[in-house]
Design goal:
By secondary structure, the chain is α+β, with helices and mostly antiparallel strands. It has a single domain, classed as Alpha-Beta Plaits (2-Layer Sandwich). The protein is built from two helices and four strands; from the N terminus they run E-H-E-E-H-E. Strands 2-3-1-4 form a four-stranded antiparallel beta sheet. A hairpin with a 2-residue loop joins strand 2 and strand 3. Helix 1 packs across helix 2.
Length: about 90
């Protein structure tokens, strides 16, 4: 599967409560199950008026269909080309 970064513009996202986020997660999980294709939600980050998500799927169409079924935006969907972090410096 391919890893995708999804940017969701949601005004007031940073003010969402734990209960709000749990409800969103429940909708996301139901949408994933209903797709009937390989799909994995890795994690999400809330920042300002946006939620950034990492998902894995076979293609962008599955990502967009998940968003449609869940009722949340997918303003940007980008393939993750690579990942790195502090440990990457040790690979030299």
């Amino acid at each position: 599967m391919t890893r995708f970064l999804i940017e969701r513009e949601i005004p007031g996202a940073a003010e969402l409560t734990t209960a709000d986020l749990a409800a969103i997660a429940e909708k996301s999980n139901a949408a994933m199950t209903s797709l009937g294709v390989p799909y994995r939600w890795i994690t999400s980050f809330v920042a300002g008026d946006k939620i950034y998500c990492l998902h894995e799927a076979d293609d962008e169409d599955a990502i967009r269909e998940h968003a449609r079924r869940g009722g949340f935006p997918a303003n940007l969907v980008a393939v993750v080309a690579d990942e790195f972090g502090p440990h990457t410096a040790d690979a030299r």
